[in-house]
TrEMBL record:
Classification via InterPro entries: Adaptor_comp_med_subunit (IPR050431), AP2_Mu_C_sf (IPR036168), AP_mu_sigma_su (IPR022775), Clathrin_mu (IPR001392), Clathrin_mu_CS (IPR018240), Longin-like_dom_sf (IPR011012), MHD (IPR028565)
PROSITE patterns on file: CLAT_ADAPTOR_M_1, MHD
Keyword line: Coated pit, Membrane, Protein transport, Transport
A single Gene Ontology CC term: clathrin-coated pit
Membrane topology: Peripheral membrane protein
Gene source species: Panagrolaimus davidi
CDD domains with a match to the protein in the record: AP3_Mu_N
Lineage: Eukaryota, Metazoa, Ecdysozoa, Nematoda, Chromadorea
Residue span(s) of domain MHD: 176-325
Similarity field: Belongs to the adaptor complexes medium subunit family.
GO biological process: one example: vesicle-mediated transport
Places the protein is found: Membrane, Coated pit
Record's protein name: MHD domain-containing protein
A Pfam family: Adap_comp_sub
Length: 325
């Protein structure tokens, strides 16, 4: 599947190269650099680039490109998902995935890439299993490794590797048992001048932070699960029960993970819990004033939203001279 993996920055510097099969010379990245220099926005690089003998499949994150090189035609969405999983693993290990963290933790990065893929195929993608195999870096462990010559790589088989729930390691213990859920929704809406919603689409995520001892079995009931479309679950969710009862039943991994993502289309006509009022005043035909007021609707009951982020798309010919919030 994946023959080689390159991590490069926006300055066209190759930070890392990992070969899973035959060695592919780093000059293959020149095809990518040619296209990358032609775009104004680094995110506008084509995700799949065809060369005379290879395919370059890439993602962009935090001024870094992860480029997977394949010799044969491969499902690009699967490769892109693997690359996103690798980025998320780096974030969980190092706090962020950036140029500096890759350079500072190069040995651990290579150890992770060795375990995540085997001969170019996905092998160990679960974070809990990886953390059993490769201990996350910390100050005391790094000093001990320098003195003793040891590595972060464990010689013991992970406890969850052979169980029915490989995403959760055994023997987890906490003094206080807590579990937290964050519901994040991105609303793409068109609102008329009276404030009524013309159309709205919602992309939502439920993230979980689990700090429970033992092997907990959780059940979550949603108010109106029938309106959710294109639902994507973490492997811990029992899909059969969701199909029959629309109930989320799962044994959660330890730590942070995304429980599910979903989409709500415009045909569902879901009431948006925020109001938007706008006023446009033009002056002399060339300048004007746009006023936007955004706030929670009082009719929606008790609000549990922590904060709102508003994106305003303006025409490229407009020049924003002042913004007041």
């Amino acid at each position: 599947m994946i023959n080689s993996l390159f991590i490069v920055n926006t300055s066209c510097d190759i930070l890392l190269e990992k070969h899973y099969k035959s060695v592919i010379h780093r000059s293959i990245c020149d095809y990518f650099f040619e296209i990358q220099k032609k775009v104004d926005n680094p995110e506008d690089v084509l995700p799949v680039i065809q060369t005379p003998h290879h395919y370059l499949i890439n993602i962009y994150h935090n001024s870094l490109y992860l480029i997977a090189v394949t010799l044969n035609e491969t499902p690009p969405l699967m490769v892109i998902e693997i690359l996103h999983r690798i980025v998320q693993t780096f974030i969980e290990y190092f706090g962020e995935c950036s140029d500096s963290t890759i350079k500072e933790n190069l040995v651990i990065v290579f150890e992770i890439l060795d375990e995540v893929l085997d001969n170019g195929f996905p092998l160990t993608m679960e974070l809990n299993v990886l953390q059993d195999l490769i201990k996350p870096p910390n100050f005391l462990r790094s000093i001990r490794n320098q003195v003793t010559g040891e590595t972060n790589h464990s010689e013991v088989l992970p406890t969850g590797q052979l169980s029915n729930v490989p995403w959760r390691r055994a023997g987890v213990k906490y003094t206080n048992n807590d579990v937290y859920f964050d519901v994040i929704e991105e609303i793409d809406a068109i609102i008329d001048k009276q404030g009524a919603t013309v159309s709205a689409e919602i992309q939502g995520y439920i993230n979980c932070c689990c700090k429970l001892s033992g092997m907990p079995d959780l059940t979550m009931n949603l108010m109106n699960p029938r309106i959710l479309d294109d639902v994507s679950f973490h492997p811990c969710v029992r899909f059969k029960r969701w199909e029959n009862e629309r109930v989320l039943s799962f044994v959660p991994p330890d730590g942070n993970f995304r429980l599910l993502s979903y989409h709500i289309g415009s045909q569902s006509m879901v009431a948006i819990p925020v109001y938007v009022r706008h006023n446009i005043v033009m002056k002399n035909g060339s300048t004007g004033r746009l006023e936007l007021t955004v706030g929670p609707k009082q009719s929606m009951g008790k609000m549990v939203c922590c904060f709102y982020v508003v994106y305003i798309c303006l025409n490229a010919s407009l020049k924003l001279t002042m913004l007041v919030c």
